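User: Quick one: structure for sequence A, then sequence B.

Assistant: Sequence A:
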Amino acid sequence: MSATAGALKRGKPASGAGAGAGAGKRRRKADSAGNRGKSKGGGKMNEEISSDSESESLAPRKPEEEEEELEETAQEKKLRLAKLYLEQLRQQEEEKAEARAFEEDQVAGRLKEDVLEQRGRLQKSVAKEIQAPASADIRVLRGHQLSVTCLVITPDDSAIFSAAKDCTIIKWSVESGRKLHVIPRAKKGAEGKPSGHSSHVLCMAISSDGKYLASGDRSKLILIWEAQSCQHLYTFTGHRDAVSGLAFRRGTHQLYSTSHDRSVKVWNVAENSYVETL
């Protein structure tokens, strides 16, 4: 048995070239294992750095950062408060408009009742004429130069007032058909209070006691007359467009006026005063 084989059999390291070659192989394996360990270590380090970077980007923001973003600037706060104020004003205007519409409906109802009552009296008077004998006179009243726009009859059915586009008002006797009084067109350039209308007379009303006559015209004026004598008493102004309707409240001297400006005004004729706008 050779010395080398005996040494291997006893587990002792061989000497010479074989031992050197074996040592070289062991060093290469160790170096290779070390390199692999370094490579793995380096990869693990890279993974940890990447994970840290990702976790930083996904980390939740601090409450202080959110509060800073939600905090209003002074200009934004002013704008928000201004919007709230405008919204409150809009709601208030809507409520006022609803209240005005409700009041106008009530006034319109009262005016309709008054008109129907006056129309009923006139229809009764006409019915009496129709039921009269064939020999009864049918009178045609002539006196206006332009179209007649409105008529009212006195509460005692003794007289009729007619108004026309010629700006005049005529008082007629129901019994005889004669003119009792003519209120002429206002004179141009006349100073002081007008003594008549200078534009189309569109509406009239007479108080339930027959004391006052009211007339309204296209020039926004309401003139008040003493019905018996046709003397001018007062002039009411305030509408922004033509006066289209007039009516006295029954049993009072309270006058309601309507206009193309879509308003309703209340007046106290006995006191020559304005009351309110509905």
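Sequence B:
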Amino acid sequence: MCAATLHLNSIFDFSYRQNQPYNQSAFHSHPNYEVYYFHSGKCNFLIGDRIYVLAPGDLILMNGMTLHCPKIDPNVEYVRSTIHFEPKRLQPLLGTQTELPILQPFQEMGNHLLRLSEKARTEVERILEHMHDQNTRHDVVGSFRARLAFVDLLTLIYELCLHPLEHVNAQSTAKEKTVQQVITFLETHYNEDVTLDQVQKHLHVSKFYLSRMFKEVTGVTMFEFVYRRRINQARIEFVLDPSVSVTDVCFRVGFKHLAHFSRVFKELVGVTPVQYKKSLTATTVQ
């Protein structure tokens, strides 16, 4: 099995049945929407302050700017299909007289998991396969039919969200529920001077046990999670207000020293905060 990543005239990016190994510590975000379909494997998916224990056939709607990361079992092949898209670039295909607000689930539900029925799962997989088959024709007609199939998928998702299937926290173990509580606490206090003692006091669980359990379930330490959450929030702040200063964002997201903020930002994003701000300005100008 191999992955096929397709760039359909910049309207969306489609990775079909991708099965390459995943960087376990790669919390990430992106300024667009995502449709994520889980074919097979064993995966805890962290999105913001939630943990989803996935089952084959699960479909996730995602606001990409929310920090997210799959924690997979490396002993089980991890197969997924993903579609990233920007609503504005999709609009010309939808036209101005769209009868159904098919993007409403992404706009109003934020990050949402659908556990599909067997019938819905079969239909989603059929559409994904059709998108892949059409685009691998490498001609204009195939590319256009792949886009139409994507609109069909969005329409199906809209229909499923009108009558939501029981959207699950999946059957979380006691350990996963405790880690979920930790993530919720960290999500609320990420921009404060969080300590293990505070988390222990809040949850009434040994901090040593919490540390070990958090790493086991998520693949990162609590403080790696906090740093990544802070940097993700900094990116959001820069996107929302390109004129905001690096210093203001540094303190706003919980760092005490600008040099530390800049160093961690570059480690996680690949560029300094100043370079990141410039890249946003350049994109806007274009």
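The two ends are 39 Å apart (CA to CA). The longest strand covers residues 33-40.

User: Thanks, that's what I needed.
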